[in-house]
Amino acid sequence: MNPIFTTLISKSTGISAKQVAGAISLLNEGCTIPFISRYRKEVTGALDEVQVASIANQLEKLNELDKRKETILKTIEEQGKLTAELKSRIENSWDSTEIEDIYLPYKPKRKTRAEAARQKGLEPLATFLMLQNPNADINKKAQEFINEEVGVTNKEEAIQGAQDIIAEQISENEEARNMIRFNFKKDAVITSVKLKSKAKTNEEEQEWEQKAQKYRDYFQFSEKLARCASHRLLAMRRGEEEGFLRITISGDDERCLDRLDKLFLKNSSRSAELVWEAIEDGFKRLLKPSIETEFANLSKEQADKEAIRIFVKNLEQLLMAAPLGQKRVLALDPGFRTGCKVVCLDAEGNLLHNEAIYPHPPKNERKAAADKIWTLTKQYKTEAISIGNGTASRETEEFIRGLGLPSSIKIFVVSEDGASIYSASKVARDEFPDYDVTVRGAVSIGRRLMDPLAELVKIDPNSIGVGQYQKDVDQKELKRSLDQTVEKCVNKVGVNLNTASKHLLTYISGLGPAIAQNIVDYRTEHGAFSSRKELLKVPKLGPKAFEQAAGFLRVSGGKQPLDNSAVHPESYPIVEKMAKNLKCTVSELMANKELREKIDIYKYVTSEVGLPTLQDIMQELEKPGRDPREQLTTFEFSKDVKELEDVQVGMVLPGIITNITNFGCFVDVGVHTKGLVHISELADHFVKDPSEEVQLHQHVMVRVIGIDLQRGRMQLSMKGME
Questions:
Q1: Alpha-carbon span 687 to 684, nearest angstrom
Q2: Which segments of the chain belong to CATH 1.10.10.650?
Q3: What confidence score (pLDDT) does residue 465 get?
Q4: CATH numeric code, 329-450
Q5: Which sign does the torsion angle of CA 505, 506, 512, 516 carry?
Q6: CA distances from 468 to 303, 327, 456, 462, 660 (A)
Q7: What is the distance between the alpha carbons of residues 338 and 357, in angstroms, rounded to a whole number?
Q8: Contacting residues for 208 by C-beta, under 8 A, at least 6 apart
């Protein structure tokens, strides 16, 4: 690893060089982010997952840039143009834009006008013109380059070729490029206009216009690029992609040309006039489009980064949603014509029974449906009911609540986002090969109530629908960020080694799909694990994987009580020493607060084990295997509104936050249309970042401030609400 990486990452993150060096060392050893942040606090100075992930991501980018520099140096060397000064500049630069600017004149190109002119031998004439000698006889000089064999038939062609070379030189000049970049950074404007339809018939025209309407805010739109919010930029880009908008990014051409004039022109001679013509051509034909593309890519990259940040934050909140826990659940996937699919699950989420009921139109078999629900809840000792929030959800919830079931049976409405993706996936087919998609979907709805994290890891995070424009952002970067988030959440909660699915185990630190499958296969063949140590018998799970994974896997009921805690096996001797010093067993130490209060952790500090680890151990001994997620609470929509037409401005309604963006949040009030609480309506005080003010699935009260029935939109406010 290049030693300068530590300095560069420290400078960009604000994390001390010592902490960065420690994290990089562990990452290079193959340690995972969750393991480093949880069990190597002494090495990193107690960096959290976000900080370690930031270091890991920047380290990856620097390694990629290092490889890019190697390629560039090799390419220039093969051309015989690599001077000691040029090599030093490239090797000492870690700014990708600067490196690409340095490389630009040497970059192999397709045949350009300038390259064609060079092949005709006109480069010396270009150099002559750039001198801008007031006394030079340009016509006489140009005459020297006429050569019909190479295609220069007159002096005008010679001069034009020389100007083409100058135009390219100007466009590749580092100082010129930085000058135009500065102008774009300060003055660039993004403009969006509506395109004309290419429809051939009236019907096609109407259909095109209807689809275009969702972008009508951008039919005539212009804004400083620096002020353009990520959601607006991504919306425009999507409109452009779908053929409804044309997007341009432009700077102040007059100011740019004026600066280039001052940079390259020396006088007002005839040579200078020709150079000016070349500057103008080079700017408009080469330099300006290049910088426009650069800023379009940069603005898209920044918008992607912001959208991914919001998606990651939403996903984390969704995955860390409060679980009901191991309860017997009756789950319903609501529907009208096709009925409501009902499944009964045991406390471990296993499918016990499934069938359909038809309490809604067109069949209206309400009594039969009611009798069936009563029978099933008694037969399977149901403790909770989970209802999907899709079509017919409100009607189904109202039907269930009206049955007069025992108050001990709690009723919940859960998000169906991604359930249809899961039900048709290979994962679901493997799990329930003998059942159709409707049964699988209903099972997923039930399991989401019991443990959202365990169920949602089976679905591609991109399909869960808790972001903005996730299909439009860099998919590689999105996947990396989402995978890191899922891994972070799974390891933060920890999993039961004897009940966790392969999909849940896959995200455990140090495992992955292959070892996760081996664990499940071993469990199937040999029965439940009796200890963490037994993991070492799993094929391909060696000491390194064990080190990374063991602390996040729980084994209950075994001989070693610490196996059901987040205390890492490497720290068991410390706890055993504590117990021995107190003349008690580890179990007694974990159960007795008075005994734990006698421990002076400073006595157990060593060169390898510091206070951070000891403090974590004491916290675990107090609450072994504690679930960091909140407790689940019930919620009911207003009985007065069921459709958007029922809603009136001024109404105050209960709702659930279903999505958070950087311009506000969307709230479900039970009318099949999510209402927007704009960032300006989130609170009585100024809100910079909605995700700092509200959380996904938070229960809120909102006031209706606007309704657009035609567009199916609703504006809400949380000002003055508790």
A1: 9
A2: 4-106
A3: 64
A4: 3.30.420.140
A5: positive
A6: 11, 34, 19, 11, 8
A7: 9
A8: 197, 199
- Name the superfamily (CATH) of residues 644-717: Nucleic acid-binding proteins (2.40.50.140)
Residues of the chain with CATH 1.10.3500.10: 113-305
- Assign a CATH topology to domain 113-305: Tex N-terminal region-like (1.10.3500)
Collect all residues with Cβ–Cβ distance below 8 Å to 235 and sequence separation of at least 6: 215, 217, 218, 469
The class level of CATH for 4-106 reads mainly alpha
pTM (predicted TM-score): 0.84
Q: How many Cα atoms are found within 13 Å in the side-chain-facing hemisphere of 194? A: 15
Helix (H) or strand (E) run with residue 610 in it? none
Residues of the chain with CATH 2.40.50.140: 644-717
Q: List, for the chain, all residue ranges whose pLDDT scores fall below the cut of 50.
A: none
Neighbour-count burial for 428-467, b at 16+ CB within 10 Å, e otherwise: beebbeebebbbbbbbbbbbbbbbbbbbbbbbebbebbbb
d(CA 498, CA 212): 53
Cα–Cα distance measured from residue 96 to residue 105, given in angstroms and rounded to the nearest whole number: 16
- Angstrom distances, CA of residue 639 to CA of 192, 646, 647, 653: 43, 11, 12, 10
pLDDT digits (tens, 9 = 90+) for 24-62: 999 999 999 999 999 999 999 999 999 999 999 999 999
Are the CB atoms for 216 and 239 separated by under 8 Å?
A: no
Give, for 246, the enclosing helix (H) or strand (E). Answer: strand 245-250
Nearest residue to 658 via CA among 642, 641, 670, 646? 670
Strand, coil or helix: 357: strand
Q: What is the DSSP string of 302-346?
A: HHHHHHHHHHHHHHHHHHTPPP--S--EEEEE--STT-EEEEEE-
Q: What is the pLDDT of residue 344?
A: 97
CB 706 within 8 A of CB 679: no
Helix, strand or coil, per DSSP, at residue 607? coil
Give the dihedral sign, CA 618/619/622/624: negative
pLDDT of residue 427: 87
Does residue 28 sit in helix, strand or coil?
helix
For 115-155, what is each residue's pLDDT tens digit? 999 999 999 999 999 999 999 999 999 999 999 999 999 99
H-helix segments, 108-228:
113-119, 123-131, 138-143, 155-172, 174-187, 202-212
**Domain 487-622, CATH 3.30.365.10 — does that match?**
no
**CATH 3.30.420.140 domain position(s) in the chain:** 329-450
CA distance 190 to 221: 8
